[in-house]
């Protein structure tokens, strides 16, 4: 029997705020343990939480970026459980009235565009972090109370690779939208995976297995590859699967059962009595909408459509917004946007990386690149000379035309001068010349190279080819 996977993801993302969700403690990574804490985030008696409005705004912004609806009313609830990293013994989260609902994410997959529906993106607080030593354990509460957004997908994902691409698309949207830095090494993104298998073509869901606290997208992919195969093997061997929670051992490459799955009623959700419901006004939402950006996939599609860029070029610009903006500043109204893209992607990016600089550090104005492209296209300089001009332009900021003039890089297009170079090369290399006459077309490239060398790269290569061919065939 053929089986298929049904996968839903719960992605937890720390929001990009300066302070925590309910207090003024800094939201920062790397501080000494238990220094960014106060009575509120430690859950001491008698304290009251105050919502972080920027976290509310960022959650609404994320919802809009994920094509979600913003309900007229949302509220906060207490999710009750005991664990050492949760100082209040409950987590403030959202249960039946979340901040955003019913959205979707579109991304490229298997040569097309896939869509994964978003059930909800709701706001809650992060917990502390447990540390286990040889004989003791400890908890760092610096992370406790950090604004955390949980993005819950519908079970629309059908493979480990699709889950991986979905997570990358989600991260790109949130980072470019300014919602989160999504730094995996700092624990800003964590993921719970819900996966089941069923007979292919069946509409009934199988037993849902949850894999908790995945901290890398590649780990999610590897865990799913293992878990899907494990579940199929259990069913094919006549076994049964029960709803449970497992953990991923990245070293061993296996999932291990932790406990049977809890249900919502186990957490005894109830509205938090210390927090009022949230009712966003139209004016407030208008401020949030003003922060919307063009979605990465839409940007890629537009670049291909409006500028005729190939998918590879558009993909780079999709992921690098500053470089994309720089390109569009130059490409609007340009005769050959592809030529501009080539200089940015093949030359400028490399020099920026080599020198550890950014676009803001460039010594030359953007218009200088347009001038350089024009010098090549009107055959004032050769492609090789253009590389020299660009290097000088990058280092000094001087204009391309001035560099060409001072270094004598203007291309020689005088027919008589090029004929003289060609005659000298043919006389000096009779072997390749006879090879070409005998039908070996590749020999012409060698002779062209010798002419360019003789002219110090200044001869017009198109004219060189034409004149050589005419002389050898004549």
Question: Which labels suit this protein?
Answer:
474 residues, alpha+beta, Arc Repressor Mutant, subunit A, 3 domains, eight-stranded mixed beta sheet, three-stranded antiparallel beta sheet, elongated
Count of discrete domains:
3
Mean pLDDT: 93
Unreliable segments of 5+ consecutive residues: none
Q: In this structure, how is the largest beta sheet organized?
A: 8 strands, mixed
Specify the helix fraction band.
40-55%
The run of helices and strands is: EHEEEEEEEHEEHEEEHHHHHHHHHHHH
State the strand order across the main sheet.
Answer: 4-5-8-1-9-10-11-12
Structural class: alpha+beta
The end-to-end span amounts to 73 Å
Please provide the count of β strands: 13
Task: Bin the strand percentage.
Answer: 15-25%
Number of helices: 15
Oligomer: single chain
What characteristic shape results from the CA principal axes? elongated
Radius of gyration: 31 Å
Summary?
The protein is an alpha+beta fold and 474 residues long.
Written overview of the protein:
The chain is an alpha+beta fold and about 475 residues long. It has 3 domains: about 5-290, no CATH class; about 295-405, no CATH class; about 415-474, Arc Repressor Mutant, subunit A, CATH 1.10.10.410. The protein is about 40% helix and about 20% strand. The protein contains 15 helices and 13 strands. It has helices spanning about 55-65, 160-175, 215-235, 280-290, 295-305, 310-320, 320-330, 335-355, 365-375, 385-395, 400-405, 415-430, 430-435, 445-455, 460-474, and strands at about 5-15, 75-80, 90-95, 100-110, 110-125, 130, 135-140, 145-155, 190-200, 210-215, 245-250, 255-260, 270. The strands form 3 sheets. It has an 8-stranded mixed sheet with strand order 4-5-8-1-9-10-11-12. It has a 3-stranded antiparallel sheet with strand order 3-2-13, with no helix packed on it. It starts with a strand and ends with a helix. The mean pLDDT is about 95.
